[in-house]
Amino acid sequence: MSQTRSVVVEREIPYSPEKIWRALTQPHLIEEWLMKNDFAPAVDHKFRFSADWGGVDCKVLAIERNKSLSYSWAAMGLESVVTWTLTRTGAGTHLRMEHAGFPMDRNQAYQGATYGWRQFIGKLEKLLETQP
Amino acid sequence: MVAAHNMLFRTLADPTRRAIFERLCRDGEQTVAALTARAKVSQPAVSKHLGVLKQAGLVRDRHEGRQTHYSAQLSALAPLIDWTSQMTGFWQSRFDQLEDLLKRMDQ
Fold first, then answer.
1. What does the domain layout of chain A look like in residue ranges?
2. In the predicted model, what is the mean pLDDT of residues A13-22?
3. Is B107 within 8 Å of A19 when comparing Cβ atoms?
4. CA A96, CA A84: separation in Å to the nearest integer?
5. How buried is B3 (Cβ within 10 angstroms: 0-12 exposed, 13-18 middle, 19+ buried)?
6. Would you say the ipTM is above 0.90?
């Protein structure tokens, strides 16, 4: 097993878990903030996010209505897992997203580079400006 | 690592050189003549840029008869790809869009 890293984004959102759940699980709403998709809230359902740069192949791994949702996320040569957790708070909801499974080993980074170069090239100019 | 970054940035900072590299990435292996036909510079200038790209490990050459074919070496970009920072940026912007959507949605 190679070592992996993960990305976590968390926010306090002033809306109920039920409302956020709809935005996370209804295809026409998901499309508005993430990507076009054929998501369905059922374990083992295979779906795909698609964008002009390509797509992401996914499968629902676990689902607990209004509380948590996780799906596999295969893109740019990398297999990973996205997990959403909704926790009700006094003011709304604490929303947490963990995207886990980024490899640290070189071989996979190379594969990633192969698939990701198009995006990379587009960002290169911006990157150059930020380098000392 | 820093030295490798610097070399890649220096090599790709030149717009003409970057255009040649991008073309090899997009269209696959090419001869100098084919690259020159699309570049806005002379063949010797294209050859010189290819030499710099080769030194940085960004392209590889293959001789066939009197022709030299060049191809992009994507593995040379690997040191620049940082998945966690790329995906953090991706999800932060998606969270912004999600919040915008929630504001527009009915209860």
1. 4-130
2. 93
3. yes
4. 6
5. exposed
6. no
| Mean pLDDT confidence for B37-63 | 91
Q: Are A24 and A34 in contact (CB under 8 A)?
A: no
Chain-centroid distance, C-alpha A122 = 21
Q: Within 13 A of B16's CA, how many CA atoms are on the CB side?
A: 15
| Size of the A and B interface in Cβ pairs below 8 Å | 84
Which helix H or strand E contains A97, and what residues bound it? strand A92-103
Among residues A78, A32, A30, A71, the alpha carbon closest in space to that of A54 is found at A78
- What proportion of chain B, given as a percentage, has pLDDT over 70? 86
* Cross-chain residue pair A78–B99, CB shorter than 8 Å: no
Question: Chain A: nearest CA to B16, how far in angstroms?
Answer: 13
More confident of the two residues A106 and A53 = A53
pLDDT at B9 over 80: no
B7 near B82, Cβ under 8 Å? no
CATH architecture of A4-130: 2-Layer Sandwich (3.30)
Model pLDDT, residue A86: 96
Is the pTM higher than 0.80?
Answer: no
Q: Is the distance from CB of A37 to CB of A47 less than 8 angstroms? A: yes
List phi, psi (to 5°) of A98. -120, 125
